[in-house]
Specification:
The structure holds 2 protein chains of 2 kinds. By secondary structure, chain A is an all-alpha fold. Helix content of chain A is 80%, strand content 0%. Chain B is globular and about 75 Å long. Chain B contains 12 helices and 14 strands. Among the domains of chain B are: 75 residues, no CATH class; 71 residues, Alpha-Beta Plaits (2-Layer Sandwich). In chain B, helix 3 crosses helix 4 and helix 4 runs antiparallel to helix 5. Classes of the chains: A mainly alpha, B alpha/beta.
Chain lengths: 249, 333
């Protein structure tokens, strides 16, 4: 076996997953329509007749983080669909290691998260003129956030026995994260104990870091990036363990 | 190598449920070996262990000299699996599906292209190669599933219920493909619940029931296990429910087994000369008229029923069998 074969297996598995996701135009449109709708809806605030630019500057980083969350978790749901449709067996029967499969699925989730978030970032910047001082830092935060959401998605897909259960489980996590993760309201404005709950969610750190990049607050960006990294490592390791147990049972 | 597949004492527990119970058999080089059993008998679980997709609780499976538990990648490289469901990527075209499988089996770009063209041609899918697989008919799905299993030109083909759910014409085509592949030199392990299929295709058959291999021999020898037994086929005139006669005839002295086969009542007995008048009188006594009656050669199905005490096609699945089947099929959680 060539030295890079396991990595190439992962790349092909990720490519195959993404190819399927992008093949369905409706799938892509629907998954982006939701954050776009949220962006426009919340851009009007407190009965204002036009978009509130100051609030939009606060909102766009949150929407970008939320889009990464939806993109990544949706993509990892393919694991549970693959299990139920039997296509996972096709990969398991091939000479591919379990680790390559997990890495491939994780890569697909993260790439989908990044692509979705970047599309929203472009729309937000173009339509509302929201700018970020350091685009590389923005991409890094989006990448880290996407990986941590992918880890969460992997855990859900591993625990769920069928797609409906996975969808319910993911909604159970995604919607509280969306409303408590500081996307639409600053967590400081939330009553106790909600800020503590928000601090347990990776989306909080993603949105906080993206806003800190706007405000050129490097220490907060660094700290949030570290938390997201810890989340990424923790969730991916835990998710991998669940998937590994399923694949090698 | 004389044996391409060597299975020794293969055992699988799902929790406390024993799905495969110390199964042992060998599949010789260039042989078609039939694993025959009803749904939920443990065929799919056995196949999943042989293909390295399920870890055995006990026992070993050796593929072309490689122990599946110790050298899974080497073993998998030598097997082409045709699962019982057509598990292809519906959102992708046939060509892209085959391309993906070729990549996973380590084929370089040029070889991939050549092999894909070859199998598309062989399975008459070339014209629809760029259509999404989800729009394929059942028969096309099946052909593409077999094509995908052949993309890396494996020496062993493991097929799980390859003709299940297909119309008669497509099933015949798939069976011809199996024979051709065997003629080309491939070893084939064929799991089926269709007795005819095992009888026509397999050189040797292992009968599996409740996770245990209860008989292993050539179809002819298995049929001979019914030696001294005769088969009598009758059809009751104007009777829509032939099944209701089974318990009536079954109680008659000298009847070893009675079951429905292809709409006729089939009676197995060692004493045919006594049985014919007895059955005729019995039917008459119960107000029926015999439309036709004939003596038949014992078949593999007769042998199966003689060995297991039940018909492979008529037996309703028990709850336990259903659970076992679901677990085995899902393969995952």
């Amino acid at each position: 076996m060539k030295p890079f074969t396991p990595l190439m297996h992962s790349v092909w598995i990720a490519e195959n997953d993404l190819r399927q996701s992008f093949k369905s135009v409706r799938h892509v449109v629907w998954s982006l329509l939701f954050p776009i709708f949220m962006m426009f809806t919340f851009s009007f605030r407190y009965g204002a007749t036009g978009p509130d630019i100051q609030f939009i500057n606060f909102l766009i980083p949150g929407i970008v983080g939320m889009t990464a969350m939806f993109g990544s978790i949706n993509e990892t749901m393919s694991i549970v669909w693959d299990k139920s449709l039997g296509v996972f067996d096709r990969i398991l029967a091939a000479p591919v290691s379990s680790i390559s499969i997990i890495v491939g699925k994780t890569m697909a989730g993260a790439v989908m998260g990044v692509i979705s978030a970047v599309v929203l970032l472009i729309i937000g910047s173009t339509l509302f003129g929201v700018s970020f001082a350091n685009i590389s830092a923005v991409l890094l935060i989006i990448l880290l956030a996407s990986f941590s959401f992918t880890g969460i998605g992997t855990i859900i897909s591993g625990l769920a026995s069928e797609p409906r259960e996975a969808m319910m489980l993911s909604n159970l996590l995604r919607f509280p994260m969306m409303f408590l993760g500081g996307v639409f309201f600053p967590i400081e404005a939330m009553p106790t104990p909600l800020p503590y709950v928000a601090r347990a969610m990776p989306l909080t750190y993603a949105t906080e870091a993206l806003r800190a990049i706007q405000a050129l607050n490097t220490p907060v960006v660094f700290l949030d990036a570290m938390v997201l990294l810890a989340y990424t490592v923790g969730t991916i390791l835990f998710g991998s363990q669940i998937l590994m147990r399923i694949m090698t049972r | 190598m004389e044996n391409e597949i060597e299975v020794k004492e293969l055992t699988k527990f799902y929790g406390s449920l024993l799905a495969v119970d110390h199964v042992s058999f060998e599949v010789k080089n260039r042989e078609i070996f039939g694993l025959l059993g009803p749904n939920g008998a443990g065929k799919t679980t056995t196949i999943r262990m042989i293909c390295g997709m399920l870890r055995p609780t006990g026992g070993t499976a050796v593929i072309a000299g490689f122990d599946v538990s110790q050298k899974p990648q080497e073993a998998k490289r030598r097997i082409g699996l045709v699962p019982d469901i057509s598990n292809l990527f519906g959102e992708l075209s046939a060509r892209v599906n085959l391309e993906f499988m070729g990549k996973l089996y380590g084929l370089d770009r040029k070889t991939r292209r050549e092999r894909i063209d070859q199998v598309l041609e062989l399975f008459q899918l070339r014209e629809r190669q760029n259509d999404l697989v989800k729009y394929y008919s059942k028969g096309m799905h099946r052909r593409l599933t077999i094509a995908a299993a052949l993309i890396h030109q494996p020496e062993i083909l493991v097929m799980d219920e390859p003709t299940s759910g297909l119309d008669a014409q497509t099933a015949r085509l798939v069976r011809e493909i199996i024979i051709d592949l065997n003629k080309e030199g491939r070893t084939i392990l064929l799991a089926t619940h269709q007795i005819d299929e095992a009888d026509k295709l397999a050189q040797r058959v292992g009968i599996i029931d409740h996770g245990r291999l209860i008989k292993l021999d050539t179809p002819e020898q298995i049929k001979n296990s019914t030696e001294g037994m005769h088969a009598l086929e009758i059809k009751i005139l104007n009777e829509l429910d032939q099944q209701r006669w089974i318990p009536i005839i079954g109680k008659t002295e000298g009847v070893d087994k009675v079951f429905l086969a292809e709409g006729k009542i089939r009676i197995l007995s060692k004493d045919l000369s006594h049985m014919i008048p007895t059955v005729v009188n019995l039917v008459d006594k119960h107000g029926g008229k015999i439309e036709n009656i004939s003596v038949a050669q014992p078949t593999l199905e007769d042998a199966f029923i003689n060995l297991t005490g039940k018909s492979i096609r008529e037996e309703p699945m028990s709850k336990e069998e259903d659970v076992r089947r679901r677990m085995a099929r899902s393969g995952l959680r």
